[in-house]
C-alpha cells in the first residue's frame, strides 16, 4: 500500500496594501500549506483559516495533524469527507489528495473530476473598504479591470457607491457587505445599489438574520456567502437568495465545492466562485469551477506583494489556467 507522508507549513504572504472589510483590516494573508506524498508524486493544498468561522492557524494545523496516521495508512478523499467537518483543514487535505491523485495517475484533476477544460476567465477585482474618497481613488486606479467588487460596511455605503460610480462610470460593479447591513437600512441601501447599476449584492445581512430577506423586494440579485457552506444549506436559502458564493475553505475542498455547485445549479441558483486571501495555490482548484459560474472572484494573488514561485498569470482582469507545476496538472 502507498503510504504518503504529510508535511504542514504555515506562511504569511504580505499584501500590497492593507485590505479592509466590515469586520476589520489585514496586512498579510496567513495560510497553511499541506504536502502529501514523496518525490516524484507530491500533492499540495492550501487553506486559509477564518476567524469568522471560529478557525485559527494553530487549531487548523492540529486538525490536519490529527489525521497524519490515517493518511499514512491510506485515508482517501472519500473517507476524508466524513472524518473532518467542512472548513479550512479539510480543504487543504482534500486539494492535496486531488493533486496527489493527478500526479500518480498522470491525468489532470479537471479530467479526474469530470469538469470542463480550463480556459481564461474574467475575475472581479476587489476594492477594499474605506472612505468614499479613498474607494473612488482605488476604483479609478483599477479602471483597467472591467468588473469591480466593492467591499461595503453599512453606514456611509450610499456615499461610497455614488463616489465610485462617478469615478468609474463605465465599470461593472458588484458589492459585498460582509453581513454589515441591517433590516432597517436594507431597503435604502438596496435602492442606492440599484441607482448606480450594481449587478449583484453579496451577503447584505448577518447570516443569522437571513429570514428578514423574505420581507424585502430585491431588484438587484442577492448572493449568499457567509450563509452558505455546503449543499446542505441550499434548501433553507432557496426563498432568500438568487446565487451562492462557493469557496473551498467553506465547502471543505474541491470535492465539496463540486457537490455544492452541481446541486445549487440543479436547484436554480446562480454561481459565484470566490476565495479567501490566499496564494495562487489556493486559487488553482477553485478556478476549475469557473466555467460553471456567472461570476469568478479569484483575485487574491493580485492583492499579494509576492506569490508562489509558479504563480497563476493574470493578463489584466483575465485569469489564466494554472500552469504546470503549480497544482492539478
Describe the structure.
- The protein is an alpha/beta fold and 329 residues long.
- It has two domains: 6-106, Enolase-like, domain 1, CATH 3.30.390.10; 121-319, Alpha-Beta Barrel (TIM Barrel), CATH 3.20.20.
- The chain has 13 helices and 14 strands.
- Helix 1 (57-65) packs across helix 4 (88-105), helix 6 runs parallel beside helix 7 (157-167) and helix 7 packs parallel to helix 8 (186-195).
- The two termini are 24 Å apart.
Task: Give the arrangement of secondary structure elements.
Elements: E1 6-21, E2 24-38, E3 41-47, H1 57-65, H2 68-72, H3 77-83, H4 88-105, H5 109-113, E4 121-122, E5 125-127, H6 132-141, E6 147-151, H7 157-167, E7 172-176, H8 186-195, E8 198-202, E9 222-224, H9 234-237, E10 243-246, H10 248-251, H11 254-266, E11 270-273, H12 280-287, E12 295-296, H13 300-303, E13 314-315, E14 318-319
Parallel strand pairs: 5-6, 6-7, 7-8, 8-9, 9-10, 10-11, 11-12
Antiparallel strand pairs: 1-2, 2-3, 4-14, 13-14
Helix pairs in contact: 1-4, 6-7, 7-8
What portion of the residues fall into strands of 2 or more residues?
A: 15-25%
Count of DSSP strands: 14
Report the end-to-end length measured between terminal Cα atoms: 24 Å
**Order of secondary-structure elements:** EEEHHHHHEEHEHEHEEHEHHEHEHEE
Q: Report the total helices.
A: 13
Tell me the name of the CATH homologous superfamily of the largest domain. Enolase-like C-terminal domain
**Name of the CATH first level of the largest domain:** Alpha Beta
- At the fold tier of CATH, the topology name of the largest domain is TIM Barrel
Largest sheet: 8 strands, parallel
Indicate the overall shape.
globular
Query: Spans with pLDDT under 50 lasting ≥5 residues?
Result: none
Question: What structural class is derived from the secondary structure elements?
Answer: alpha/beta
